[in-house]
Amino acid sequence: MEAIKTRAAVAWGPGQPLSIEEIDLLPPRRGEVLVRIVATGVCHTDAFTLSGRDPEGKFPIILGHEGGGIVEALGEGVTSVEVGDHVIPLYTPECGQCKFCKSGKTNLCQAIRATQGQGLMPDGTTRFSKGGTPVYHYMGTSTFSEYTVIPEIALAKISREAPLEKVCLLGCGVTTGLGAVANTAKVKAGDTVAVFGLGGIGLAVIIGAVLAKAGRILAIDINPEKFEIARQLGATDVVNPKDYDKPIQDVIVEMTGGGVDFSFECIGNVKVMRSALECCHKGWGESVIIGVAGAGEEICTRPFQLVTGRVWRGSAFGGVKGRTELPRYVQRYLDGEFELDTFITHTMGLEDINKAFDLMHEGKSIRTVIHF
Ligand code: NAD
Ligand code: AHE
Ligand code: ZN
Ligand code: ZN
Q1: What angle do CA 167, 172, 174 make, to 5 degrees?
Q2: Cα 122 to ligand 4 centre (Å)
Q3: Which end of the chain is more exposed for a tag (fewer CB within 10 A), N or C?
Q4: Among 3.40.30.10, 3.30.360.10, 3.40.50.720, 3.40.50.300, what is the CATH number of 177-315?
Q5: Which parts pass through the membrane (predicted)?
Q6: What strands, in cross-sheet order, belong to the sheet with 133-135?
């Protein structure tokens, strides 16, 4: 196979608008697959890396990690997918053979983590370039390109019946929220849950909490425009910290007669992470950090909060093992167990992708889906 041209949104430097251009893409090498991206969501993590606060963001880069696509060509030795298969790229791959995969305790496969974090394919090079200058990959996926090359172990083969322009959201946001509730927290019927941040992730946490039959679901955001959707999806209480002149954790502890069983931080704000921990019930409450905070930022609380039984955890991709478990999430969607339409507040072509970032920063969108 020859090198091809692909239309992509290139981030040439931190904080700069993405530039839509034709760039060069080398064919897939051993263990790699050429995928045509049909649609991709825009997640806050893309904006985070574009901002320059991600220690792993290496420019120029092609962002995007919430995609759905179709296999176009196979590199040498690829056996688990075929041309024409529908796939969701995985920023958390699953090799099945590394210490992490074999442990059965985590979804954090480390087989290609080092090169992935440097914006490189597993052999230490890039497939993307422009005028001979390498353009870096992002999270092993780079879905803001019509064609992208992805390691075989980072592709989940899904049902061909699933609409890629919707189930692309299972490539990150929705799976992250559903999985954090079911796999990381293991919320049980009757539990009280607090969700901080009502973007794509927080709203998926709400759906997950409803599926787990949580008794009460408190939805917290400083943008009251998010409350209607949160209620529609099943939040029982909505709380705007700006309406109170005391710490929001104190408000929630009072509202719930001692604190919540589980809280989820879905923002990436280290101060809110503290509130999320401290609104948990003494003796057993657990707080799950999902939000991604910038380089150099740290969380803090009084150790007494943990001594007295609260637990701090984190969750990446909802603890979901992509190749073996994600196809089932797609099937659950097809079976009508949860919906995705509410998340998709905007759709547009790649040429308008900067608008998607503006809408996110203005708090006007949940998810924009880019159609190629
Ligand atoms: P988003 O921008 O769509 O939503 C964030 C929400 O937080 C917004 O509604 C905003 O109004 C609200 N918010 C901001 N500051 C707040 C505050 N101080 N108090 C209360 N609410 C506040 O973002 P998203 O796409 O839903 O992503 C949320 C976070 O999750 C990001 O940090 C993202 O990087 C991270 N993320 C992590 C994973 C993972 O696997 N751990 C996966 C996806 C996203
Ligand atoms: N590169 C950042 C860390 C970013 C991060 O935490 N990413 C999440 C997924 S966010 C998806 O929207 C994740 O899965 N992390 C696990 C991993 O191995 O990256 C940094 O701080 O260096
Ligand atoms: Zn994401
Ligand atoms: Zn592995």
Answers
A1: 65
A2: 13
A3: N
A4: 3.40.50.720
A5: 193-212
A6: 4-10, 19-25, 128-130, 133-135
